[in-house]
Amino acid sequence: MPVMLGQPLERDEESIPVVRGFARGFLEDLRVKLPWYLTDITDALHMKSVTTVLYIFWGALANAVAFGAVLEGGTDRAMGATETLMATATLGMLYPLLCGQPLTIMGATGPIAAYIIALRSLGNVVGAEFLPLYAWSGLFLSVYLFIGSMFSLSNVIRLVTRFTEELFSVLISVIFIYQACRYFVAQLVEVPSATDTAEKAAAAKASLFVGILTFLIATSIRGCRNASLFNQWIRNRVADFAPVIAIIVGLAVSWAWIVAFGTEMDFLTFASGGIWETTTGRSWIVDLSNINAAGIGLSAVGGLFAFIVIFFDQNITVRLVNAKGHRLKKGFGYDMDMMALCICTAFLSITGCPWMVSATVPSLNHCRSLCFFGSEQSNAEEDDTKERERRLEEESTKALQKLRNLVDLSAAAEAGEADANVESELKGNGMKRQMSHAELVRAV
Description:
By secondary structure, the chain is mainly alpha-helical. It folds into 2 domains: 17-377, no CATH class; 383-443. The chain is 68% helix and 1% strand. The chain has 16 helices and 2 strands. The chain has helices at 24-33, 39-42, 47-74, 81-98, 110-126, 130-150, 162-189, 197-222, 232-240, 242-261, 293-321, 334-351, 360-370, 374-377, 379-428, 437-443, and strands spanning 106-107, 357-358. Residues 1-9, 375-381 and 429-438 have low confidence and may be disordered.
């Protein structure tokens, strides 16, 4: 049966076969995505989206700066914070316009950073320049991603159990924690010279203090979601901005420490031209011809291993976002996601920027910041319940009023019968009772 474009298609993820024909899954993803495409833009007009944009911006900025510092040291300044920020900003705008699940946030991840650093070491073994080797590896990686998109290889991830997905999330978290601890330990165990022992020791202690303070502030504010102060909406918004608030406070404490004690602390450096200039001042376009035959062969193999790392990193993250517990309404598009990643990876490789994938922690935080928690989600149900209670109260009042009228009529009838008996008795005694019309009405 041919796949037609134009109308929404309801799909059950479990019913899709693992092996599919050429481009069939990609066309189905297009058919699911097109009816919802404009709503991805118009939904941003919601107030919840505005607060989420601010939260995600600072989170993505912090992630880019952190991994930029790691890559700058691991690649000997071949790529650093400038390239990481440029890649994050560019893909943050390009990828959501092309993919099937724009809730995912593109960013540098621990496995990708570790693989890029390892690729540089392999390039030194064969005598290949790092940036041309990296660019060729990225182009081969894009070819593998295109093949994976056309043949729906992402369906293989469906066979992965929930335990594996959670284990992968734990691995990403451990990498983040390891990189942070590695920085502080390296400063504390470094053996300084005799002339600057006190200065370096003070800098190491100050950095450790600021790092622990930032961590404690972030975790404390994040935990206020279940506190008793204020209402649920305010607590959720404050908890969403926990990393941003912690970073701002940590930066303020660092500057105050420097001003008060004159301690030299490490800060991220940028080129004199700002974000528009690369870390080393090189051109933004990598020279693909500056590589030998051994380097091209290594890049083909390196691109294949990079595909394995990115394939699992990307698809597991997207499936965590598309989990049934999130109750998403617009469906999924795994093959579109891989095609968008293919295009973005080719661009990043040619410009010498680090590869990006759907980052697990920012993507889940993005999804969590846009969802409606218990009290927010139940507002409509509470309004409906109140309306039903009001209608029930009105009907009960009407029923009681009718019952009261019935009792009054019964009492009036009994009073009329008693008056008739009295009048008959008076007639028997030769007396007549004159009752006016007004008295009769009062009696009734």
